Amino acid sequence: MPRILKLCIFLFIVLLGLVFHLRNDQYVLVDYYLDSIEVVFSASIVVSLAIGVALGYIVGIPGKLKVKRENIRLQKDISMSTKELNALRVIPVKDEI
Q1: Would you say residue 96 lies in a domain?
Q2: I need a labelling partner for 25 at 20 to 30 A (CA). Which of 15, 16, 35, 63 fits?
Q3: pLDDT tens-digit profile of 78-91?
Q4: Distance set, CA 64 to CA 8, 24, 32, 71 (Å)
Q5: CB distance 36 to 65 below 8 Å
Q6: Whole-prediction pTM value?
Q7: Are the C-beta atoms of residues 24 and 42 closer than 8 Å to each other?
Q8: Residue 90: C-alpha distances to residues 3, 64, 77 (Å)
C-alpha cells in the first residue's frame, strides 16, 4: 500500500477519533475493586481499545513464532534439497547396454 494512502487512512481515523471525543465529552464513573474514578467517556473507550489491541497482539505472538520456526525449517529443507540436487547433477550417467 502506498505511503500516501496509509497516511490518509491514519489521518481519517484520527479525525474520526477527534469528532468522537468532541461529541462525547461527558464524564463516566469507572468503578473498579479498590476505588472509582471519573474519566471522560472517549478516553475510557480509547484506553479499552488500546488494552484490547495489546492483548490481541500478545495472544497472536505464539502463532507468529510457530509460523516463523516452520518457515526456517522449510528454508533449511529447501537448501538441503538444492544441495542434494546439485550433487546429483554432477554424477555422470552410466549407460548399461
Answers
A1: no
A2: 35
A3: 999 999 998 888 87
A4: 29, 37, 34, 10
A5: no
A6: 0.61
A7: yes
A8: 48, 39, 20
Number of domains in the chain: 1
Please list the ranges in the chain whose pLDDT falls under 70: 1, 95, 97
Cell of 30: 469507572
CA 45, CA 39: separation in Å to the nearest integer? 10
Q: Residue 97 falls within a domain, yes or no? A: no
Q: Which helix (H) or strand (E) holds 65?
A: helix 41-90
Predicted pLDDT at 97 = 64
> Do 1 and 10 form a contact (C-beta atoms < 8 A)?
no
State the residue range of the domain holding 56: 3-89
DSSP classification of residue 96: -
Local structure of residue 36 (DSSP, 8 states)? E
Cα–Cα distances (Å) from 11 to 44, 45, 59, in that order, read: 21, 19, 28
Residue 11 C-alpha from the chain's centroid: 20
In a domain, 95, yes or no: no
